[in-house]
Design goal:
With 404 residues, the protein is of the alpha+beta class. The protein is built from 14 helices and eight strands.
């Protein structure tokens, strides 16, 4: 889910309306051309006047979402993502994760831009007032694609989920900013309300997202971790874009696409992006053969956003989202032995002191989940290791045996 949301934009769920007429379609297409020119001029970028436009039904949108799932997840990648969420106690083992993901996305999706077909799709069940908002957001994705071929980063393999969320945050953060500028500045003429001049912008967006959630029963009933992960690229991406714009204007934002963020640490701490601080490459020797008689399923980087969101949404008073500060790098390795799936998380902080804080918080969180099977952890300076859901009782011995 952390990868798919880049291509499927979330909007308020609205009751079905009658399908639009041919006359209404042409009206919306003309409006799209006008919006394209305005947002391109506003940001000093080339417009994509060749972008195709079409209306789509809810069934076609659902088919698109399903196709994106199949396209973006190869081999065991979907199983790895599902297993990580269940190992961390976010979903129960008996829940159908794919079904829940599809239901969630089907409920939320509005219009979208398809970078493969270079086409802007408008939903034929939404009213004109909502279409305009969607157009401003989605057409800016076409502008991003035209100027920077930015969507190539989303076709990377899934061994680094964190890097994809970072790029997504840039894409969605600026598209959300442009949507706001279109409605308040270009349409209403309130120049003082440019997105980077709005105080408490992040809190304002969080409040708006919470209001939207109330109209989406599937989202509202989803784990808090999932809810916050879905909106991370929009909320934190917007804050990142605001920071860059205040520092160096539209030129600075243009330059950001020439050196895209490589981690959500850079999104959460834009000063680290500007200073060029890159994540630590966490590796384990012979990671595929660490556990005897076990099948290696895959690996990925979770990133600071994962732990930030985890600590921000748990029910433990002694943990806090700031406990993820100091994230330097991580990698989670997923294995299967018989019918049991388990994982080894390798985590590295920027300092031993910061690692102590994250280590304690993550231990508190994992122990509170009463995880199935065996769980243990160990700490060594700036590095920590967490063996989760191990199918044997001697997991502590097994972890120490690895000589990490």
């Amino acid at each position: 889910m952390r990868k798919l949301i880049v291509l499927v934009i979330l909007f308020i769920s609205i009751s079905l309306f009658a399908k639009v007429s041919e006359e209404e379609m042409q009206k919306q297409f003309k409006k799209a051309d006008s919006i394209m020119l305005q947002i391109s001029e506003h940001t000093g970028r080339k417009p994509d006047l060749d972008v195709k436009k079409a209306f789509t039904s809810k069934k076609e949108v659902i088919d698109y979402v399903k196709a994106q799932l199949d396209q973006q997840y190869k081999g065991n990648e979907f199983l790895v993502e599902e297993s990580i969420l269940k190992i961390f106690g976010i979903y129960n083992w008996d829940e159908n994760y794919k079904e829940k993901m599809l239901n969630l996305l089907e409920e939320q999706v509005g219009g979208y831009y398809d970078p493969e077909k270079k086409t802007m799709y408008l939903s034929d069940w939404l009213p004109d007032s909502v279409q305009e908002t969607i157009l401003a957001h989605e057409l800016f994705h076409a502008v991003q694609d035209k100027n920077y071929d930015i969507f190539k980063y989303l076709r990377m393999d899934n061994k680094n989920s964190d890097a994809k969320v970072a790029v997504s945050s840039l894409l969605e953060g600026e598209a959300t900013a442009i949507m706001m500028d279109y409605m308040l500045v270009m349409k209403m003429g309130k120049k003082e309300m440019e997105f980077d001049k709005i105080p408490n912008l992040e809190k304002l967006m969080e409040m708006q997202m919470k209001m939207q959630n109330s109209s989406m029963p599937t989202l509202a009933s989803s784990p808090k971790m999932i809810q916050h992960s879905l909106i991370f690229p929009y909320i934190k991406g917007l804050s990142f874009v605001k920071y860059i714009k205040q520092k160096s204007g539209w030129k600075g934002l243009n330059d950001t696409y020439k050196r895209v963020p490589v981690s959500t640490e850079q999104i959460l701490h834009p000063e680290k992006y500007l200073s060029g601080e890159k994540p630590i490459e966490v590796t384990l020797k012979e990671s595929k053969k660490l556990f005897k008689d076990s099948e290696f399923l895959g690996e990925t980087v979770l990133g600071e956003s994962f732990f930030y969101t985890l600590f921000n949404t748990d029910d433990i008073d002694k943990t806090d989202k700031d406990d993820a500060n100091g994230w330097g790098g991580d990698k989670v390795f997923v294995y299967r032995k018989g019918d049991k799936i388990f994982s080894l998380l390798a985590y590295e902080s920027d300092s031993e002191e910061l690692n102590n804080k994250t280590y304690d918080s993550l231990n508190m969180y994992l122990k509170s989940k009463n995880l199935k099977n065996c769980y243990t952890s160990l700490k060594n300076g700036k590095k920590s290791y967490f063996l989760m859901n191990f199918p044997e009782e001697n997991c502590e011995k097994a972890l120490k045996k690895l000589k990490l």
